[in-house]
Amino acid sequence: MICLILSLIAVAASWWWLASPVTPARAPIPAAGRLDCVSYAPFRGAQNPLDPGTRVSAEQIAQDLAQLSRITGCIRTYSIDNGLDQIPALAQKAGLKVIHGLWLSSDRGKNRYQIDVSVALAREYPDVITAVVVGNEVLLRGEMTAPELAATIRNVKSQVRVPVTYADVWEFWLRHREVYDAVDFVTIHILPYWEDFPVKAQNAAAHVDSIRRRMAVAFPNKEILIGETGWPSAGRMRDGALPSRTNQARVLSDILALAQRDRFRVNVIEAYDQPWKRRLEGTVGGHWGLIGDNPRDLKYPPGQPIGDYPLARWQVGGGLLFSIAVFGVAVACLRRKPWAPRWPAWLAVTATAIAGGILAGIAAEKMMLESLDPGGWLRWSALLAAAIAAALAGTRTVMTGESLPTLLSLLGPRERRQRDWGTLALGIALIVVCVIAAEVALGLVFDARYRDFPYAALTIAVVPMLGLSLLGRPSEGARPLAERLFAALFAASSLYIVFNEGFANWQSLWTCGLFALLALILWRARDGQSQGS
């Protein structure tokens, strides 16, 4: 009973700390003011601009613009495809100005269409469209040369009466200075999270200011508009840059306060979360919005404290129930087979209850955020289910004095396979965890940029397995080949990932620590170990 009470206190205290709201010194969206400008894309849910058949209705855009008119007087667009050519007319009705973007690529025919429609809109709505952005990051993508781009800008400039610019990451302006001569003002993107050397949230505003001043020195005769800056509210860490709701609020409030103090214009990316971007940039790509996708609620209502876990009440409740369930399994095992377990067994049960109680809610939230397609839902739901099964079945196994089963005892010759349902459930959980963890480890080694770290679910699974591995007495049998291979993969991957991701990335360090523990657990396995101790 004492162990259960301690577990419940640990879970409740941890969630009190995790879910404590923060009231920033400055609100991300001022209650008595509005943002200069916000990037706007109207796509919701499964709508995808990469699908040529996608066309957003005027009614949907009008709903968004009515909402945005309450927090800003200006929106920035990027294209006229998929129904976005309707925006200037609808923005006029909503009382919004538009920094109109036309999309350039390597397709010259599409470029001509974008230019023709954009020029026509700029002439038709001169009181709405305040500037035309001729291309977005086309140099970064390598789809046009700087001379081609400069010629295109001059072509558009000759046909419209509003200022014309080009938008790209700040480094590319320095690499292609000839574009500067063609534009009326310089539009730069400064995204501290995506820098080659990612910047922490607390240093993001200073980084933006430093780059802006550097660009002002390099291009002294024209205005420098920060065309994109912001911070993601969810996704994987990059070095010390942590996406979170509180960090997003902090970065935006710091940058906007700086802009107000030094009187420069800022366009925030972006108005709404865009789920389709997750296909290109992973989980983090879909969570740059000031407003969620569904429901379309403002993330930071003025005057309200901000927390990283808006569903914390459900998460802490689920965590407490998880801890109770773990101890319920332990007590049920004692009633079936009365004996006096040693204190290390109760310590293992307590560790399992605390780890699962704290992290189950986080693992469930990560599963919902990080599952994009059916394959993603299958992977992360299977990992979470295996983790829960490992915690419950592992508790049963440690209380009955048995050991962690080997893969051979589950997949080997029929006469050697386990038939006990509890051991079988634990073994299946072990297989699922090893397979998914191996896929994650290899992905983080060979294609890491947009991959998430499933530290929460892995911890729930690894803690009970580690307890069983340490408490069980390995038999004299040889190490099974499957366990040796998995152990080698996890050990080698963890070393590479730690150095590749950097020591400031705690999500990486945590995940690699779990890989190392999995390697230890599997390396300690012996053929026949599951027969008991």
Q: How would you summarize the topology of this molecule?
A:
Blueprint: H1 2-18, E1 37-39, H2 58-68, E2 74-76, H3 87-94, E3 97-102, H4 108-124, E4 129-136, H5 146-157, E5 164-169, H6 170-175, E6 186-189, H7 204-218, E7 224-229, H8 245-262, E8 266-268, H9 278-281, H10 312-336, H11 343-370, H12 374-399, H13 408-411, H14 421-446, H15 455-471, H16 481-501, H17 506-524
Parallel strand pairs: 1-2, 1-8, 2-3, 3-4, 4-5, 5-6, 6-7, 7-8
Helix pairs in contact: 1-10, 1-11, 2-3, 7-8, 10-11, 10-12, 11-12, 11-15, 12-14, 12-15, 14-16, 15-17, 16-17
Show unreliable segments.
529-533
Overall outline? elongated
Number of self-contained structural domains = 2
* Rg, nearest Å: 28 Å
- The helix tally amounts to 17
Strand order of the largest sheet: 1-2-3-4-5-6-7-8
Please identify which CATH superfamily of the largest domain we are dealing with. Answer: Glycosidases
Main beta sheet: strand number and arrangement?
8 strands, parallel, barrel
Going by helix content, strand content and strand pairing, the class is alpha/beta
Percentage of helical residues? 40-55%
Question: Key features?
Answer:
about 525 residues, alpha/beta, eight-stranded parallel β-barrel, 8 strands, about 5% strand
Please tell me about this protein's structure.
The structure is a single chain. The protein has 533 residues and is an alpha/beta fold. It has two domains: 24-286, Alpha-Beta Barrel (TIM Barrel); 312-531, no CATH class. It has 17 helices and eight strands. It has an eight-stranded parallel beta barrel with strand order 1-2-3-4-5-6-7-8, surrounded by five helices. Strand 4 (129-136), helix 5 and strand 5 (164-169) form a beta-alpha-beta unit.
